[in-house]
TrEMBL record:
It is found in: Mitochondrion; Plastid, Chloroplast. Its cofactor is Zn(2+). The keyword Zinc applies. Belongs to the class-I aminoacyl-tRNA synthetase family. CDD domains: CysRS_core. Keywords: Aminoacyl-tRNA synthetase, ATP-binding, Chloroplast, Ligase, Metal-binding, Mitochondrion, Nucleotide-binding, Plastid, Protein biosynthesis, Transit peptide, Zinc. This is cysteine--tRNA ligase. It comes from the Eukaryota.
Length: 582
């Protein structure tokens, strides 16, 4: 595809871009899980038990300093305590101070995917959001039990399996594996537990029995329905009234139900479908009961955080509350968290609207960490409009960050960075203190990741000044400043899940994908550079400038130096002008 055609695809408007479809025929490499598992082990909490109390989260002591050298400001050994964490609770519609039920320990349940197809970037947003929360809670010294389920028994799975002539459980297991690959690409840490519906039928059946025993459900011909009339608080999470729940929209039509809003806890078996034995006959669970049963199995009936996408507020989470409280009157979730939609041309992305793009399609053209950067560049509760323009900008920013880190580490290596003094210039120390304050304050304010990302801009600028300007090269304690600044930036990027196993390798992959987006090979680009070099030698400056401008228009910047011409990916010139005009 030519450059002009590519740019016309900036805002995706078709179900699957033909360009994506052609590119996707190439097999993506299997992600390296080892580094991700190692990172998880570094952060891994001790085993979680809701019955064992713990001391409150300990705060770090006030700043303690190492020895003073030459009267300069010493490097701080520890930082000040983190600010209190505030999270927006969908139940109360307010930001609330986070206080877990058991001091020092957090139980968190996030609704997982229904495994009948590859995951799209709407899913990516959900699990990147809660991965950020998981990482930040660990950073704040909480022991976290993070439970994320797989829905591997569902109508959609059965329908897809029938289309493909495949066993439903086999199909769902295959897509569980594909989901794990996607999460590894995006550097989402593995949760503590990943229960599957098919492995928790006993817990589900036991909970349905309890709901029936408590008089909140009824049986009709082997089906079990929850009676919403028996739960007066129904609708408190979503703010919906029972009369708003019209059958056929989000609740199945069934004339046998006592109330059109009643929902299935157990569905009787149908020919050709998987089933499990129960006191009401063979069948399988309804959608909502699984999360109530599995969260209770691993976290108890009362725990701290329940999360998912905004589309789950109703009916899924509303129904979860009703059936969990019906099974156990003491059931209570401390904080309900929901992320906003991913939109395409301001319309919600969804499979039903056929305007979705899978994670695999996107990372064929953009590095997975560029996609992650794009997703956390908007506050998690706000809608985010998906476009190649925004991904171009995210990719460019990520390249700048990683190139700065690589340049810094190379300079430190050349200057034997281990032989450093234990002091810093005052302005560097102040920069680091401000970085910590801005980052911690923004993250503690309901995970305000855009502000957290912005907080590293000034330290990055200072590093580049120290590396590349004449004045910076003469700064006293230059190596000490570079070492401390880059260390702090990498620590904070780690909390955001943006630290790769190898920065240089990711820079290479970012360049490869930039070429892929414009349909060029590196050899073809090098021929263009050589053509420009020849034009300059022949004083054909108009031709030389035309080549430079043409490459800049598609997102390739040329850099001339005494050693020759190199290149880097950047925001395409037309995209850059559009962004500046906004």
């Amino acid at each position: 595809m030519g450059t002009a055609s590519l740019r016309r695809c900036c805002l995706f408007s078709s179900p699957i871009s033909p360009f994506f479809a052609a590119r996707f025929r190439r097999q993506l490499p299997v992600p390296d899980f080892s580094s991700l598992i190692l990172a998880s082990k570094r952060l891994k909490s001790p085993s979680f038990s809701r019955t064992i109390s713990s001391s409150p989260r300990s705060s770090s002591p006030q700043s303690v300093f190492c020895g003073v050298a030459n009267g300069r400001t010493p490097i701080p050994a520890e930082t000040k305590p983190s600010p209190d964490l505030y999270l927006f609770n969908t139940m109360t519609k307010e930001k609330e101070l986070f206080r877990p039920r058991v001091p020092g320990r957090v139980g968190m349940y996030v609704c997982g995917v229904t495994t009948y197809d590859l995951s799209h970037i709407g899913h990516a947003r959900v699990y990147v959001t809660f991965d950020i929360l998981y990482r930040f809670l660990k950073h704040q010294k909480y022991d976290v039990c993070y439970v994320r389920n797989f829905t591997d028994v569902d109508d959609k799975i059965i329908a897809r399996a029938n289309e493909l002539g495949e066993d439903p459980l086999s199909l769902s297991s295959r897509y569980c594996d594909e989901f794990h690959s996607d999460m590894a690409y995006l550097q989402c840490l593995p949760p503590s537990v990943e229960p599957r519906v098919s492995n928790h039928m006993n817990q589900i059946i036991d909970m349905i029995k309890q709901i029936l025993d408590n008089g909140c459900a009824y049986i009709i011909d082997g089906d079990v329905y929850f009676s919403v009339d028996k739960f007066p608080a129904y609708g408190r999470l979503s703010g919906r009234k029972l009369e708003d729940n019209r059958a056929g929209e989000r609740v199945a039509v069934d004339s046998r139900k006592q109330n059109p809003a009643d929902f299935a806890l157990w569905k009787s078996a149908k020919d050709g479908e998987p089933y499990w034995e129960s006191p009401w006959g063979p069948g399988r669970p309804g959608w909502h009961i699984e999360c109530s049963a599995m969260s209770a199995a691993y976290l108890g009936h009362s725990f701290d955080i329940h999360g998912g996408g905004m589309d789950l507020v109703f009916p899924h989470h509303e129904n979860e509350i009703a059936q969990s409280c019906a099974a156990c009157s003491k059931s209570n979730i401390g904080y309900w968290l929901h992320n906003g939609f991913v939109t395409v041309n301001e319309e919600k992305m969804s499979k039903s609207l056929k305007n979705f793009f899978t994670i695999r399609e996107v990372i064929e053209l953009y590095h997975p960490l560029a996609l992650r950067f794009f997703l956390i560049g908007t506050h998690y509760r706000s809608p985010i409009n998906y476009s190649m323009t925004q991904l171009d900008i995210a990719s460019d920013r990520l390249y700048y960050i990683y190139q700065t880190i690589c340049d810094c580490e190379e300079t430190l290596h050349q200057h034997h960075g281990n032989d450093l003094k234990d002091s810093l210039p005052e302005d560097t120390l102040q920069c680091i203190q401000k970085l910590h304050l801005d980052f911690e304050s923004s993250m503690s304010d309901d995970l305000h990741t855009p502000v957290a990302l912005a907080s590293i801009s000034e330290p990055l600028r200072i590093i580049n000044d120290l590396l590349h300007t004449r004045k910076g090269g003469k700064e006293e304690l230059r190596m000490e400043s570079l070492s401390s600044l880059v260390k702090e930036i990498k620590n904070l990027l780690g909390i955001l899940g943006l630290v790769p196993s190898n920065y240089s390798e990711v820079l290479k992959q970012l360049r490869e994908r930039a070429l892929r987006r414009v349909g060029l090979t590196e050899d073809e680009l090098l021929l263009k550079i050589e053509e420009r070099t020849t034009a300059r030698k022949n004083k054909q400056y108009d031709k030389s400038d035309e080549i430079r401008r043409g490459l800049a228009a598609i997102g390739i910047t040329l850099m001339d130096s005494h050693t020759g011409t190199t290149w880097k990916p950047t925001v395409p010139h037309d995209v850059h002008e559009h962004a500046n005009a906004m």
